[in-house]
Amino acid sequence: MTDQAAPVTAGSQAAGSFPGDEPPEVLIGYYREMVLIRKFELTADQMYKRAKIGGYCHLNLGEEATVVGLMAALQEKDYLFTNYRDHGYALSRGMDPGRVMAELFGKSTGVAKGRGGSMHLFDTKTRMLGGYGIVGGQLPPATGAALALTLHGKPGPDAEAVMCQMGDGTTNIGAFHESLNLAAIWNLPIVYVIVNNRLGMGTTVEAASGEPLLYKRGASYRMPGERVDGNDVVAVREAAQAALDRARVDRQPGLLEVMSFRLRGHSVVDPARYRSAADVEEAQAADPVPAFRAQLLSAGVFTEEQAVQIEDDATEKVASAVAFADSSPAPTPDELFDFAYATPVANAPQALPGQPAAAREPRL
Amino acid sequence: MTDQAAPVTAGSQAAGSFPGDEPPEVLIGYYREMVLIRKFELTADQMYKRAKIGGYCHLNLGEEATVVGLMAALQEKDYLFTNYRDHGYALSRGMDPGRVMAELFGKSTGVAKGRGGSMHLFDTKTRMLGGYGIVGGQLPPATGAALALTLHGKPGPDAEAVMCQMGDGTTNIGAFHESLNLAAIWNLPIVYVIVNNRLGMGTTVEAASGEPLLYKRGASYRMPGERVDGNDVVAVREAAQAALDRARVDRQPGLLEVMSFRLRGHSVVDPARYRSAADVEEAQAADPVPAFRAQLLSAGVFTEEQAVQIEDDATEKVASAVAFADSSPAPTPDELFDFAYATPVANAPQALPGQPAAAREPRL
Amino acid sequence: MPTTSYRQALNDTLRAELTRDENVFLLGEEIGIFEGSYKITAGLLKEFGPERVRDTPIAEEGFVGAAIGAAMLGMRPVVEIMTLNFSLVAIDQIVNHAAKIYGMFGGQTPVPMVIRFPGGGGQQLAATHSQNLEVWYAHVPGLKVVAPSTPADAKALLTAAIRDDDPVIFLENLSLYNTKGEVPDGEQIAEIGKAAVVKEGTDLTVITYSRGTVIALETARQLEDEGISVEVVDLRSLRPLDRETFCASVRKTSRAVVLEDDWLSYGIGAEISASLMEGAFDYLDAPVRRVAAAEVPLPYAKALEVAALPDASDLVRVIREVLDDTSFSR
Amino acid sequence: MPTTSYRQALNDTLRAELTRDENVFLLGEEIGIFEGSYKITAGLLKEFGPERVRDTPIAEEGFVGAAIGAAMLGMRPVVEIMTLNFSLVAIDQIVNHAAKIYGMFGGQTPVPMVIRFPGGGGQQLAATHSQNLEVWYAHVPGLKVVAPSTPADAKALLTAAIRDDDPVIFLENLSLYNTKGEVPDGEQIAEIGKAAVVKEGTDLTVITYSRGTVIALETARQLEDEGISVEVVDLRSLRPLDRETFCASVRKTSRAVVLEDDWLSYGIGAEISASLMEGAFDYLDAPVRRVAAAEVPLPYAKALEVAALPDASDLVRVIREVLDDTSFSR
Ligand SMILES: Cc1ncc(C[n+]2csc(CCOP(=O)(O)OP(=O)(O)O)c2C)c(N)n1
Ligand SMILES: Cc1ncc(C[n+]2csc(CCOP(=O)(O)OP(=O)(O)O)c2C)c(N)n1
Ligand SMILES: [Mg+2]
Ligand SMILES: [Mg+2]
Known about the structure:
The complex is a heterotetramer, with two copies of chain A and two copies of chain C. Chain A is an alpha/beta fold. Chain A has helices spanning 2-5, 24-49, 64-73, 87-93, 97-104, 139-152, 174-185, 205-208, 233-250, 277-285, 288-298, 304-327; strands at residues 79-83, 128-132, 162-167, 190-196, 225-229, 254-259. The radius of gyration of chain A is 22 Å and the shape is globular. By secondary structure, chain C is α/β, with parallel strands linked by helices. The model of chain C has no long low-confidence stretch (mean pLDDT 97).
């Protein structure tokens, strides 16, 4: 795994940077978010096993520092598009955990009213414009959102920008190529973020990508590419912020590769038997949540007691998220056609299974 | 047009290399092929205007040195896939001009039995496996042909290889990315050739491609990329041969960009009003056919008389191609379903327009 | 009323909508400098500049998807794909994204966009460039699919499509671009989802759309001279499908023929026939017949292409068969 | 006869064909180390090695197209696409290339390949992961489309598909993988293009395929107890479509219901109904009815998903309606 283990070759922070010059409340805030994601995901896993959640369910376990660092780089006015591994982004972007859990439970109070489920978290208020389940599918729309920004507004430090997250495996599909090229020739304010967790489902980056140093693929579009250690929340934030700034001010799109790990299987039902013990061990050793905790403790940013308090708060928050989701109403069949069209038109289909499309008028 | 006018930065021959150490019969052979293509294309243009040819018709005018150089690099056992701008490749690959013209005329004697037309020349004997009209469409099948070669045989100097031609505009579509990546990770014996004639239809390379030095796009797959002067037939052959050798022996796929010009519009019906006078002049000044003729004359490879003889021969050949095509039978409606399936099956549809799909059996 | 071509009606409408609403913009391959493969966008780049008439690379998936994202942020993109055939490389964006985003995310963000392309064979463009796959799009909830047959409808349906908040597939036809017709001045907004009885008749109904409507009207006029009164229904909208209009017509005439350029099996005509089964069964004097294309990759050779595609003579023959079948007498 | 699951029947057949013919090879995402998203290829990588059980990157257009090229050179690739939904990014290769190459180039090179994928909803996979778009493929000349409903058919149709020289779309179904049935030992080769009467009956014919067949058979058995004799036709092949088999059945029973998981408009049922219009009009006592999915992007929430998808109770209700309509009495 040479290429994936390679030292971080780029990024605004050196690998292993110590976040000593960050205000403590900022660091504590990051820890709070990371722990919330961790607890949320562990609970989602349980809820899946209890059949409260159905369909596919992909967790951010192991990617907490990446998620929180990326979200910390975004400003409120920015737009976010992600793949289906999206719970952490939704939480860190500011969606209410209860409404996120409710979506996973398929409830009307869910962020997508129960229509989308785990893979399709969406919220116009926090400007997270989805959670997408088709690999690469989010890239063209994210690119178009950035295009809209250039038609609406001017570049500058206060301009809006788009972040488009994807997995490592996603860099091999056509939409990746077409989107980055469009962003390059149209000078769009967008940062494409590859969360390189080393695996598609069970396929390694080396097996899937002719150039496994994925950030180098920006070269095909003269787009700056960088790699950063995804277990270093501040380094991630800094690299993302720098790229976003270039997008805002210079309309220079960017490609950021964030080296991360997936602690579990591809989705909650995947036992990941294809992973070697060594790989699993490597991922676990890199677990960013205990590592960041230890770092903050030893730097005196917080005390053990404060840490435990934060963790208890998170447990509590997730528990009330579950309670909220549990007690929320599920959508009822009479709502089936509610979002069929944004503009109503004549003859829109309304037949339930077995109902004929055309009304019979028996001849008298 | 800086990037497109850039000196040839790579390729086995320096720009403007003089073909002095080539055997004269080889050079004369190239000239013969170039002239044949030139005359064939000019005649195709006329025949289109006389409505002998229908549909879309794209000519290789201006690309003769590129076509002949590429085809000279191929061995008989190699496979070729091209785009719809394919007449020259078919001729240079050894298809009978009469059968090529017959295809353009939609006749049963055509290389695709009149079913494909200008864009879809195909001949298993000369191993040109099409002529494809969907931009980028030929890349995945060409890649798969190379995959088949690795399953059939071993690498080595005698191994078969695949050449896949495309236009500059084609490098921006998803299939380009996916195909080159597959070739890279699977170590396939294939050379992708970009014929960079500076234009898609009316769109320049700079307007369409984030990295307009197209050969550099191999980097996304760790695939060697080279650029060569497409008006230098020997340089093209050498560069292509070197790439094909790496494909055969090392199973190292390659990307070759051949800088060429399109003398006319995108297709025979395009007056190309969008082209500036300067661009047209540049293309005409670079016309490889008179240039090569002058070069061979001044090097004493042939005499003016011999040159004229070659040109007359070509005129003659094209005239008999037209005569053959003209006198050939057109397919008849009873043959409509002839190639519906390779393996016949029950209930294959055979209805002509207006015939019912299911036979009515009136109740008695 | 002024007479204009289908092509010009489209061009005029695009110009009018670009002028009216600054959120409207066009994108597609070669729509600017080249003025469009079929010159629908002629002159617009000069008038509106490269930001609003945007040339794209050959990357249908990318730019169709980009239009989706722009629409999500309030723009109203009108995408040109050169022909229906090339929409296949973008179909994941159209069907899995444009058609899903409004409903799948719980109605939070509409996707107001139009995707225009011509379909149709008959130009010797061979198998990959001559397809009529609009039935695929017509099958997909979340999309609206319209198919004008006249310059007036081209104007009124395109205006409606651009102002609609859902993704609308706008089907043009290669062989209609040069056809002419009267087009009313001033703003004209069609109702999406409505078919039209474009000629009244009493003996038999022909149900069709796009190029088929032109053929059906010609045929109907011709048969009129023989005392056969054919009603012609132009579907205009393939999704939603206005079943009531054509069922009502057939309840009146008791006989129906569907004409389409599509392949027979699983084509548009199948749904029309099945809908008549449901909505006019008790009135049918004979089975609904379908006139559609032979099921082969469309060959280049003219004689084969002609044999494979339905034309007026096929329609007339089938109309006569249905009339004979039901002992029709003038 | 040994009983096995649909999944195992597929796995066994792939193994048998890989063993029999060295030109057969498999490719697709995660079919090797991961053993397939739905474990259809379990164990095969170990047995046949990475050249013949080839993992691909996420690049459906690329690897489906690569299979086409390999087939043109005499290989017999069997491609797995994880689900039908992801075939949309590869559809240009399937429809504009695999389906065209034999005919468009004048019959010079067949394209012997199989593309396997499951369709189907009902697993709460939401709008983009639950589609039944097989009707799109069934519409396209040059393709063959088969859809087995039992483990035995899975074996016999997959064997036939692999040995066929044309591109075959092999439609599986998420909800069938765990179903069990008897599978004869030894080589079994189905005839592509043939439907089967899987249960005889006299009162009404249900025409269906894939998961629908399982539901129809259950329903038929249940109604049998009430003295209602339902005949079930399993289409098995969607292209070519065996109209004669289901028309003959309906000529006998005079009543027909089509059951499918697809959206109603322009679905498989439309073609069945239209074909019955043509082939059994004079025998029909009541209009053919269609039981199909509600036309919405399939929602994730269970109650909505259940409401949108057809099930046995919908089928029973519609059968009763048709019987009542025709004054059926036991
Ligand atoms: C077009 C398409 N092909 C296949 C799939 C099935 N699939 C879902 S996730 C996945 C792996 C994606 O890996 P990566 O991009 O690295 O993202 P990660 O899951 O690691 O976050 C695959 C193959 C899909 N959803 N869409
Ligand atoms: C997928 C697709 N999109 C669009 C087209 C229409 N089209 C045909 S040729 C062409 C330009 C191709 O340019 P290039 O690749 O440079 O090839 P050249 O014609 O210069 O040889 C376009 C856009 C097509 N055939 N296929
Ligand atoms: Mg990954
Ligand atoms: Mg070009």
